[in-house]
Amino acid sequence: IGETGLLGAGVYQNIVISLRESVKAGDQAYVMAHNDDNGNGTLEYVKDPKMDLPTVDAQSQVVMTLVSVK
User: Fold this and answer.
1) Which residues have C-beta within 8 Å of that of residue 10, sequence separation ≥ 6?
2) Which of 13, 19, 32, 69 has the smallest C-beta neighbourhood within 10 Å, fewest atoms?
3) What is the C-alpha to C-alpha distance for residues 1 and 29, in angstroms, rounded to an integer?
């Protein structure tokens, strides 16, 4: 439903996500990190799910978290 700009490796808090869909306070959504597979700085997963795959951690779990809309 939305995306941020390109983020480098690291730990982040209070990230602003530009949304393409309407949401209201109290709604919840999963935030998921994606790789920039071809290094062009553009998220292509939405148009081509074979590109910019979700990032996985050392245990091969997708890096994501549930957030609440403020």
Assistant:
1) none
2) 13
3) 9
3 to 34, 43, 48, 61, 65: CA distances (angstroms): 10, 8, 15, 20, 14
Tell me the pTM: 0.77
Q: What is the pLDDT of residues 21-70, one digit of tens each?
A: 899 999 999 999 999 999 999 999 989 999 999 999 999 999 999 999 88
CA torsion angle 50 59 8 45 (round to 10):
20
Task: Report angle CA 45, 36, 33 to the nearest 5 degrees.
Answer: 70
The Cα-based distances of 37 to 16, 28, 63 in angstroms read 23, 28, 16
